[in-house]
Amino acid sequence: MDTSGFRAMRADFLSLSVKCSNVQTLTLAKPSPKPNATLTLPGDKSITHRAFLLAAMAKGRTLIVNPNLGLDTQATLRALRQLGVLVHTTSDGTLVLGREELGDPRAPIDCANSGTTMRLLLGMLAGRVDAVLNGDASLRRRPMARVTRPLNAMGARMTTRSGFPPVRVRRRASQLKPIRYTMVVASAQAKSALLLAALRATAPSTIVEPVLTRDHTERMLRAMGAKLLTTGRTIRIWPGALRALRRMRIPGDISSAIYLLCAAAATPDSILQLRDVGINPTRTAALEVLRQMGADVRIARRRDWSGEPVADLSIRGGAPLRNVTIKAALVPNLIDEIPALCALACTARGVFSVGGASELRVKESDRITTTVELLCRFGADARALADGISIRGGGELRAPTRVPTHGDHRIGLAAAILAAATRSSLTIDDSECIATSFPGFAAAWRASLAQRRSTPPS
Q1: Which of 215, 233, 248 corresponds to the end of one domain?
Q2: 111, 151 in Cβ contact below 8 A?
Q3: In angstroms, rounded to a whole number, what is the distance separating the alpha carbons of residues 453 and 269?
Q4: Last residue of some domain: 228, 248, 268?
Q5: Pick from 20, 17, 12, 11: which is nearest to 29 by CA?
Q6: Is 110 annotated as catalytic?
Q7: Is residue 457 in some structural domain?
Q8: Which position among 336, 381, 429, 430 bears the catalytic label?
Q9: Where are the strands (E) in 5-156, listed by range?
Q10: Rg from Cα positions in the chain
């Protein structure tokens, strides 16, 4: 991965130093009074997972440029290598050589903390191999029946531990059957698993979503030659082989972008510019929420990369902010950004609320509980709802000396927003999880700190 963009970061609104050499604890130094930054972000994590997996299924070689090489996507690459897929990481990107037949892995596939890895692999592997998919303690608490049940209805042979990992996949001699399936929950991961399996069915399949979810898989499938028809919330897909794109460039991760934009919005006089960020319309709901809250967010240089819309984002911090209510219909398209928006809501006037977000309880942590706990550590007036969070903003915040992440990268990144909002230093414990979505986070802040030397490393 090209890290020159990280080395060139001038992220002056928040400086980071590493407190211990194994990057398990991060200390955020006090923000500068007049920060000004231009950043290039790591590749989008969701798109990178899909690029690796679909390239492995396609005929030919695919060079994936600017992939996210965080801990989650590394789990996907390890899984592909266990299945016999040739993968090479070069200075230009990650080269994947697709293959029609996969080998049975000699050991269980460790999906680590990555739900996307496990769920999409289940669709890719359905009926094709004998394998066991497992993960860490957090992943073993995440539901998999939403994927295995419809796949078994297509003729796959999968068993779970009462609907949870580990998942055993068994080979079948016959092809999968087509399916017409209405999704029980709004899940882009479950939908994607069914789409990957449907490519090897005997006839077209139809999938109906309860609400629209991120459509990276559909866009990539079309770009790779799949026959796919989308009408509203209904997707019809025909079986067939994929063709390699030869070169696929991954846009910057908009979920990571939102956390940085919120930190800048909470810092008066800040100007933050983010280059080459993916602005897929199924992922930009958080940008609209920021605008509704009064943040000065702008989009420039719109273009297209392999079917994905890309643009540069900018924000000027310090604008008066007001809180809003996020409707349940928007939740699937900003589920990863809710902790960021909650952190920013602590600085805004009025009541912020989000409902219909029970999916937060089955993420890397119970994000309703851990987000509210984080906000309360900063003195915010926040409470957990059965399926969401309510915050009364505008009160005085105070920074604790340190906070935990509970092993959840989004909680660690939300803590950085609150550190910016309180103009305080902060130690984040168990921070290695941040690398699951934002690889190079600590190195980027260290590089910025070394250039400015405004605060000595601890």
Answers
A1: 248
A2: no
A3: 21
A4: 248
A5: 17
A6: no
A7: no
A8: 336
A9: 15-18, 25-29, 36-40, 61-65, 86-89, 94-97, 109-110, 131-134
A10: 21
Within a domain: 151:
yes
* Structure-block tokens of residue 338: 């809710």
Cα–Cα distance measured from residue 407 to residue 432, given in angstroms and rounded to the nearest whole number: 8
pLDDT digits (tens, 9 = 90+) for 390-439: 999 999 999 999 999 999 999 999 999 999 899 888 899 999 899 888 88
Return the residue matching tokens 């900018």: 314
Are residues 66 and 214 both part of a single domain? Answer: yes
- Reading phi first (left if > 0) and then psi (alpha if -120 to 50, else beta), residue 84 is in left
367 with 439: CB under 8 angstroms? no
**Does residue 313 have a pLDDT over 60?**
yes
pLDDT digits (tens, 9 = 90+) for 60-104: 999 999 999 999 999 999 999 999 999 999 999 999 999 999 999
User: How many structural domains does the chain have?
Assistant: 2
Do 208 and 282 belong to one domain?
Answer: no
CA quadruple 194, 303, 46, 344: dihedral sign: negative
Q: Which domain holds residue 393?
A: 4-43+252-452
- What is the DSSP pairing of strand 296-305 with strand 308-316? antiparallel
Tokens of 67: 């992939």
CATH code for position 183: 3.65.10.10
CB 179 within 8 A of CB 205: yes
Judge whether 458 and 17 are in contact, CB under 8 Å. yes
CB 19 within 8 A of CB 458: yes
